[in-house]
Amino acid sequence: MSHPCTSLGRSNMAALAHSNMDFKASFSGSLNEKHCPEHLQALKTFTTALRDKEYRDSVEEEAFAALYQVLSRLSDDFSTAGDQELQLQLMAECFRAQRNACVQSSRNQTAIRNLGFVDVSLKLLPLLQTTNLDGRFEALCCAIQFLGNLAVGNQMCKDDIWRQSFPNLFLQLLSVKDEKAVSYAAMVLHTCLDEAKVEELSKPQNILVAFKVMELCRTRPDLDWTVLIATQHFLKSSTLVKSMYCGMSHHERVTLLELISAQLNEEGSENCGVPPAVAHFLAGSFQKGCGAVLTLATGSISSDEVLQEALTVISLLDVLCEMTSDLRQFMFLQDYPDLLETTVELLEQVHAIGKASKNVFSAAQNFSAEGDCSAHSPVISFKAHLIRLIGNLCHGNTANQNKLSASGPSSPSGTSLNTTHRTRSWSPAWSAAGRPTTPPSGSWDLRWRSEMEACC
After folding, report:
1. CA distance 38 to 2
2. How far, in Å, CA of 188 to CA of 36, rounded?
3. The pTM is what?
4. Is 23 exposed, middle or buried, given 0-12, 13-18 or 19+ CB atoms closer than 10 A?
5. Secondary structure of residue 48 in the 3-state scheme
6. Cα separation of 284 and 118, whole Å?
7. Which residues have CB under 8 Å from 18's CB, separation 6+?
């Protein structure tokens, strides 16, 4: 039997398929003898064979049944006897074989599911997380990749994985101290999610998973899959958005609001997926908490809690500006009770405070002065954004225009209350540039193959 690192040409792979090699016999030693390197070589040969579509489409179920027995024995033996480092390598290779078998093959997905691979694989995941052996993350990554390939395009497999993994196992996997493992776990979560499962996330006993995803969006913005989970699933559920917002700190709310703003700015944002109920909720939140931004004029900006609360108000304002900038599905906000009046009153207060003394709202303040902590103040352009929202609420709305004329707001000189027609005055952290709106192109198997080439 050839060494796993030997390059097998396509002709050799075809010959291997046609010969219908009896891998069941090859695995017999793994079932009845002490684990040894020869058993690992047999598994690697099987893994390599499964890369070939011709073989993958013709492999007999008996070979998978034998592989299942090998993995089951490894599960029973691990942490109790034998060479654990070798056992980890054998596990990783079993998971690679399972992963390759599922590539674009509903036939193999179904066979593997029916044999019980989901149960035994999920049983091993907690063991792999708790061991301190060097090979644990390699085996863990391969196991998660297998679950991903098993789930793609197969609703029954998705439901099996979800039923046995949610919420605790998903929460554990998203907290693993290995970047690839976390990224792969996010891929699996994204693949399993649907509208009904997102609603489950909003329940108090499950919402920690949603909070973990949002934490990763904030602390690991390079993980595209967590951002995709948030934008393609979370933001479409007004129930979940409300539950998350109410349970978040102000710092965490800013991340959520930035993601909403970025989603609104996506091309084709008429179908951004953010439901009207979310807009209602955010408008109410702005009205209730907008006064917090005024505390920045007293010098309380040094207090992180006060600053974060003010940043939340500023982020809410940004979102409302985007929603009312000619997005038809959100223009009902023009008629949201007292939203125009609240915004006008806040503008008048901000303008008056800025004129009364030198503070963060003062138009004459030198924000670029070296050493001035307010040089990077979050309230720069805040007045302009208030004016933008007022203009948007009045655009094409005679009733609001009449209200504005009657109130006579004292706007800063040189400004206009005209609508901005979706002009963008800032670039959110989650800008569309460089951030995919759909999962990376190509099938999961190709992504696995390229990212795990060193392990194969």
Report:
1. 11
2. 32
3. 0.83
4. buried
5. helix
6. 45
7. none
* Residue 267 CB coordination number (10 Å): 8
Q: Give dist(CA 354, CA 294) in Å, integer.
A: 10
Cα distance between residue 415 and residue 314, in whole Å: 19
CA 194/CA 233 separation, integer angstroms: 7
C-alpha triplet 162, 164, 169: angle, nearest 5° = 85
Residue type, 84: Q
Whole-angstrom distance, CA of residue 246 vs CA of residue 284: 13
Please spell the DSSP secondary structure of 270-338, one letter per residue: GG----HHHHHHHHHHHHHHGGGGGGGGGTGGGSHHHHHHHHHHHHHHHHHHHHTSS-GGGGGGGGSTT
Q: Which residues of the chain have pLDDT under 50?
A: 1-9, 11-20, 364-375, 409-456
| Preceding amide of 167 cis, omega within 30 | yes
Tell me the one-letter amino acid at 317: L
Residue 295 is predicted with a pLDDT of 86
- Predicted confidence at residue 100, as pLDDT, reads 97
Per-residue confidence (pLDDT) for residue 36, from 0 to 100: 85
Written as one letter, the residue type at 309 is E
Tokens of residue 109, six digits: 């997905």
Q: How many residues does the chain have?
A: 456
Question: Sign of the CA dihedral 344, 345, 346, 352?
Answer: positive
Residue type, 174: L
3-state secondary structure of 114: helix
Scanning the structure block, which residue is given the tokens 């999961």? 444
Q: Which residue has the tokens 């509903």?
A: 106
pLDDT value, residue 4: 39
